[in-house]
Fold each of these.
Amino acid sequence: MPDQPQPDPLLALADACVQCGLCLPHCPTYALSGDESESPRGRIAIARALADGRLAPEPSADAALDHCLGCRRCEAVCPAHVAFAPLLLETRSRQRRRRGASLRQHVLEWLTAHPALLNRLLRIPGMMRMSGLTRRAGATSWVSPDPSAAQPRSREQRQDSASAPEPIAIFTGCIARALDDELAQALDRLLSAVGYAAQRPSAQTCCGTLHLHAGNTAQAAVLAKINARAFAGCNTVLSTASGCHAAVSDALAPITRVRDALDVLAERAEQLHFRAATVPVALHLPCSQQTVVGSEPALRRLLARIPDLTLVELRGMGCCGAAGTHLLDQPARAAALRAPLRQAAHDGGAGIMVSANIGCRLHLAAGSDIEVIHPIVFLARHLQ
Ligand code: SF4
Ligand code: SF4
């Protein structure tokens, strides 16, 4: 008997959409243009038509798919449980095979796959500007400016963690490793205060999210294997970049559990004691933190322990537009998505903004007067 042709998995994913349109009000790109093709439902229709051959590849269809932020806000509200992330990944993988990628994308993918080299390169003066990213001084730090880093821990904290610290592995990422020294030091201080000793296996590499965003599934699979080897034997790995969380979790499953560092710190929040805040803080919640990681309650529980803290809420305002390399590939669209968040932070009198994803921090900080830091850095700066 001849082999039956295998059904196209992309068509099966697309066919789950009942075209109800309930996701449309939640899509940041649909909010920008109001065009159906820039909505989740429109993109699913385009992906389906490309897959079954009813639509020949053409620039406007590619652009509609390229503009997708991968924020998964549509997936979070879909009553039919359409798996939009795998659908987008499969679609972009086919686009990548058909179109290839730009030289810049190839360079970025190669550099992020070699984080130690990237780390050295980004510390060369002027290299950051040449990369297309900008960084306001102090927005994300090259070296730790934390004046309280050397302060002794309080007696209560010493008593709480009097027993031998529990080792816990940290996923450091690629860009964050190069650009956010203060985050690593802040995390170590907070973990130490609650009885953990941070360990960073040196063989780890980039999570591959940047590659997946651009449809390079082959390279992402290679990186996943490297990370699986690097973290072999670890029960738990902590992530501090919400955008990396899904890829690292997939790479290490089912043996190793990846947890947001905020969740782990919040479990022992009563051991953390903070100084009062002196400026209002804009709270940016990256899409990945809201739709994938789910660490918002932990973050709020930790922030609630800082006396006199006034939060400027940015929740419900949409994606900032960073989205992998979207901030580089579509700078005008990325700036348009970012503008209302910045305005709200400014109108609320925020002196500082916190955001748990490195791409969002770089994008939100670029050219801004408001310092943008990881919430863990903010917490550590106020640790007593
Ligand atoms: S993706 Fe889900 S919410 Fe959006 S149109 Fe399809 S079925 Fe409706
Ligand atoms: S992932 Fe985000 S940008 Fe893309 S279609 Fe869904 S809601 Fe819109």
Amino acid sequence: MTETDLLNLTYSNITDARQDMSRLLQERSRHLSLPRSLYNDPLLFRVDMEEVFMKEWLFVGMTCEVPAAGNYITVDIGQNPVLIVRDRDGEVRAFHNVCRHRGSRVCTGAKGKVANITCPYHQWTYDLKGNLIFAGSDMGDDFDKSQFSLKPAHCKTAGGFIYVSLAEGEPPAIDDYLATLATYMEPYDMENAKVAAEVTLEENANWKLVIENNRECYHCSGSHPELLRTLLEWDDTNDPRATPEFLALCESQSAKWDAEGIPHKHAEFGLRNRLVRMPLKEGTAVMTMDGKPACKLNMGRIQNQELGSLRILHLPNSWNHMQSDHAIVFQVIPVSAQKTLVTTKWLVHKDAVEGQDYDVEKLRYVWDQTNKQDRTLAEQNQRGINSLAYQPGPYSKTYEFGVINFLDWYSDAVLKNLPGTAQ
Ligand code: FES
Ligand SMILES: [Fe+2]
């Protein structure tokens, strides 16, 4: 435990922490930020990990990152190393990246390609469906390999996105969202996309502060000059602040999108998922400094470069902007009560050639700046919350309804999973 963790440790054991978390969430005011301990206490963070990140569906990567049989990526979800690999039938599968011999992490890199999955410790070898196929000759005649397959994790894909759940039983229902996601992503043909750039920022802030910051644009005018060259601050056509000019722009753009068969209408699945295509500022095509496309090739079957941005929200750990020439996906992975990893990937058509069809610096500039600005905001938010002076403050119902929605989702997700909530 770090020194900061010790300073913020309110609970002496996890049972007390779980009970108190349940009480804090049931008693919280929906229109106030959370009590301090929910943002910085290490044991309450452990409850977040156990009840949200070990049970809900998490965005872990894109199918084009595992384009062929044997391609894999890895991600650590809390203490749990996870391996995502494409098998020889083309299916993307997820496993606990933990050897069934003595528990070593099996695939040690962030990504790679293998014929089979071999543990570096004693070379136990698994096929791409996780079956143990080699354990040497030293395990004895009665050793039954079929009992030692890699443990699977729930894994589903749609529209190029890969979601994993570490739930031991049945994970939350997600198929309705995935069917809609596949429809909205069809124009992008994400199997034929590639990651052109990727960055992971380590942020000294609780994961909920990272998501809260993303769920409102109240802070945009004060912090994001690059983003606001193209982004319109309204969240949706039903945004209470929407002006008649904005609504007229939405209407004229959506008529063009309809003509091209580009899905754009608002769709939501509880508070967890939301999809909507929103126009960017008139005269701009994508989120670059000059608003012009960053890549000469459009994605998939797209013709019209002024597609605005298809915004896709997946709680608890992802938001995304799909544009005409490139897509930007974001993944949030908590590390500790006050440390969070935020990974951003920029994707383009797989045939686009760097330096010829796109310039990486131009492609990533706006969101690189925006991410750094957001990191500073989340970290300063955390530092203030750690102070004795902090007390939960009011969210604006007009500007911060997205934050309220996020915390309602979070609170419900934790409370439904917390056993003994009524104690
Ligand atoms: S721990 Fe993997 S082969 Fe021994
Ligand atoms: Fe921001």
